[in-house]
Amino acid sequence: MNKELDFVKEMFDKIAHRYDFLNRLLSLRQDVMWRRQMVQAAAPAPRTRVLDVACGTCDVALEVDRHLKGQARITGLDFSHAMLCAGRKKLMKHKNQTICLVNADALELSFGPNTFDAVLIAFGIRNIMDRQRALGQFHTVLKKGGKLAVLELTTPQSRIFKKIYLTYFTKILPLIGALFSKDSHAYHYLPASVLYFPPPTAFASLMSDTGFSHVRFKQMTFGIVTLFVGTSK
Fold first, then answer.
1. 62-91 b/e with 16+ CB inside 10 Å = b?
2. Are 98 and 89 in contact (CB under 8 A)?
3. Could you list the pLDDT tens digit for every one of the 233 residues in the chain?
């Protein structure tokens, strides 16, 4: 494991206990709506297999489970053990015994080819430096015709809103994050990682180059979040 990966893993381990609270606070609960739209766009069918990559505290996995009324086999995967522990507590709180959790790296998926009908990843792809390799892994484990849905924070394109957003994102958000999480590095890393993430058109092209067809994206909440969807060939 390289030093950069070690840093990201350690960072998420440290903030796991406050992750949900800060997501709701910093997004004004918009993150709930974003995930719901992601699951609807992926449109997993009942009795299918779904992989939630970088599942964190299982918000996406639980949304899929609610969407399909418990009629899906869902696997949640994350490289942060602390995030999975927080997710497991949430599953116990919801009395959910159908979501399986795996502690693993998105770049080294151990599932066989053509295993899943849908792969979803929310707010995780920007933390993976070799995104093309990750997309290749997702394509391999997806069945032909399976859907990949990627939800990620992005930089708004509107000049006026971008200026307001960047002021909040680079100056105010780190202060709030540090206050509640007691980790100043994590919420300085967050805006830096978002600003480094490619524009929606570039990431959509990367998905196409990796073998996904019918790639489309939808910018939400003034462009601070973008939802990408593609189909495995």
1. bbbbebbeeebebbbbbbbebbbbbbbebb
2. no
3. 566 677 788 888 888 888 888 888 878 899 999 999 999 999 899 999 999 999 999 999 999 999 999 999 999 999 999 999 999 999 999 999 899 999 999 999 999 999 999 999 999 999 998 999 999 999 999 999 999 999 999 999 888 888 888 888 888 878 887 777 766 677 778 888 888 999 999 999 999 999 999 999 999 999 999 999 999 99
This prediction has a pTM of 0.92
Give the type of residue at 16: A
What would the two tokens of residue 210 be?
A: 């990796």
* DSSP at 193: H
Q: SS3 for 150?
A: strand
Opening angle at CA 51, ends 47 and 52, nearest 5: 125
51 φ, ψ (degrees, to nearest 5)? -110, 125
When the candidates are 3.40.50.1980, 3.40.50.150, 3.10.129.10, 3.40.47.10, the CATH number that belongs to 3-155+199-232 is 3.40.50.150
Using CA atoms, how far apart are residues 117 and 148, in angstroms rounded to an integer? Answer: 9
Query: Do β-strands 116-122 and 99-103 pair in parallel, antiparallel, or remain unpaired?
Result: unpaired
Residue spans of the domains in the chain: they are 3-155+199-232
d(CA 81, CA 88): 10
